[in-house]
Design a protein that fits this description.
FliS_sf; FliS; mainly alpha; cytoplasm; cilium; Four Helix Bundle (Hemerythrin (Met), subunit A); chaperone
């Protein structure tokens, strides 16, 4: 019944939650990282859209989601196996997080899109390494 009441409030969000749950249920670690990138990029693009349209609640929700995903990506880096690449990604994620937080106080969507574009490049490289 929880889905029914949530569906009535926001059908699109309910669909996304069900879709995400389905895609994560059997995913391995590498596939989960790809999903995190996908969700991060989407959250950043929506935050940019919302910032330019004064949709403060949507912007706040998407900034929170993007920040949480950046923390998750950073927290799951394997510095023993990843060496210098992990250190570089940690700095990159921290810088992206700082940029998102700075952008969150304004009405300009460009910083969110810039971070999303940078993340899309990393996601593409990750997919290439995975052979997807």
């Amino acid at each position: 019944m929880a889905y029914a009441s949530a569906l009535l409030r926001n059908p699109a969000q309910t669909y996304r939650e069900i879709d995400l749950a389905g895609r994560t249920s059997n995913a391995d670690g590498a596939a989960l990282v790809s999903l995190l990138y996908e969700e991060l990029i989407q959250a950043l693009r929506v935050a940019g859209w919302a910032a330019e349209r004064n949709q403060f609640a949507t912007k706040s929700e998407r900034v929170t989601r993007a920040t949480a995903i950046l923390f998750a990506l950073e927290a799951n880096l394997d510095f023993d196996k990843g060496g210098e690449v992990s250190k570089t990604l940690a700095r990159f994620y921290a810088g992206a997080r700082a940029e998102v937080i700075r952008a969150s106080i304004g009405h300009d969507g460009a910083p969110f899109r810039a971070v999303a574009d940078n993340m899309a490049e990393i996601a593409a490289a990750w997919s290439q390494v995975r052979g997807v």
